[in-house]
Amino acid sequence: MINEMKKEVAEYIEKHQNEIIELGNQLFTHPELGFREFKTAEIITEYRKKHNLKIDKHYAYTGLSISIGSGRPHIGVLAEMDAIPTQGHPCADPETTAAHACGHSTQGTATLAALEAVNHVIGQLKGTVTLFYTPAEEFTDLEYRKGLIREGKIKYLSGKENMLVDGLFEDVDCILHLHAMGGSEYRFSVGSTLAGFIYKKITFIGKAAHAAMMPHLGVNALNECALFLNAVAYLRETFRDEDMVRIHGIIDDGGNTVNSIPDKVVYECYVRTANYNILQTLNKQLTDTAHHCAAAIGGSCIVEDIPGYFPLIQDENLSRVVEDNILDYADARTIKHNETSVAGGDVGDICLFKPIIQYGYTGISGRIHGADMRVEDPYEVYVLQTKILAGSIIDLLQDPEKVEYIKKNFQPKMTMEDYIKYLEG
Ligand SMILES: [Zn+2]
């Protein structure tokens, strides 16, 4: 329900909508890959300074947080900073092909504008709000990230993994997050789950030989890979619909020259499932299949697994707070509840330790991760989400008992020790 304070803040947001949309446009047109979000941080800093918002911390190489208020409760708000390689997107960075085809720039806008708006009434409230900008959500550009690890600039491959291990979220009571969604007949999504995944790199090894004169002396690594991909296709009929298994990859090294039998082929993929309990078994099945297929052709393979993200289970009590605020602006029939998604994100790792939600919003057109992804309705994407976030933050600060209730009913799913063990394989 809209109370006086929320009304005042919503009016402030409405009045400043051009500035908010302009911030959104700036972030959208300056896409950067994970742990390279330098210009993004600059744009955020410019806006922050203009509105006298104070920096809280710098972390995870390019990440930063901004805090308002003091004392408890302590509400966290999360915004991702990075873009994704998207060939052909009109705003793509010519060098890296990074584009905001996942819409992270839109989160970065609404969260900052919401913090700024709430800051105008923070004197009348008790508690702290911290906006965490989190780098490198997309699991991509891994060689660059491994380089940063070697240089000691980061410890792990994703932004939130680093932030969790560095204890950045330790002090917050609960965390609000949001993500753009595409292709939905609904306007909002509340309580949806995200899948877990493992990143897999398979290097098929063969033996080079002249492709026409002496193929009998070579071992064709591309054929090993082709056999493996066919075997995976045959396995697909054994996957249960409810587990929502996805195995999707690319060949990023397919041989050197057409003249020679390829002696090395690299296949990279994700193994995803909505059923986290079968992820390890499924992964082992693929490892075995790769070894058998390589051996069948006379070659071998090296399998490298990198732990991906955990599935997201959203906090129901916190979702209710956000849903109340969505309902201030939208009809209940436009909200999709408890969807099962095969997408994944490092926000899943946070739900192991803290109550968190990630609601979905629309107003974009084209395909998420596609070259045609655009912000179609800037008011819906930027202005309305700012109001919903600001309203949710105010509700939580005005009702510390609710925050206590959320905390009390939350069960951590892992210890930090086990999490670090998982990350370090
Ligand atoms: Zn995303």
| Strand residue content | 15-25%
How many separate helices?
13
Order of strands across the widest beta sheet?
1-2-6-3-7-14-8-13
Fraction of residues in helices? 25-40%
Number of strands: 16
The biggest beta sheet is recorded as: 8 strands, mixed
Order of helical and strand elements: HHHEEEEEHEHHEEEHEEHEHEHEEEHHH
Bound molecules: zinc ion
Q: Runs with pLDDT <50, length 5+?
A: none
Walk me through the topology.
Elements (H helix, E strand, L loop, with lengths): L3 H12 L1 H12 L9 H13 L3 E6 L3 E8 L3 E7 L3 E2 L12 E2 L4 H16 L7 E8 L7 H9 L8 H7 L8 E7 L7 E3 L5 E10 L15 H15 L10 E8 L10 E10 L5 H19 L2 E8 L8 H11 L8 E3 L9 H4 L5 E6 L2 E2 L8 E2 L2 H21 L1 H9 L7 H8 L2
Parallel strand pairs: 3-6, 3-7, 7-14, 8-13
Antiparallel strand pairs: 1-2, 2-6, 4-5, 8-14, 9-11, 9-12, 10-11, 15-16
The protein binds zinc ion.
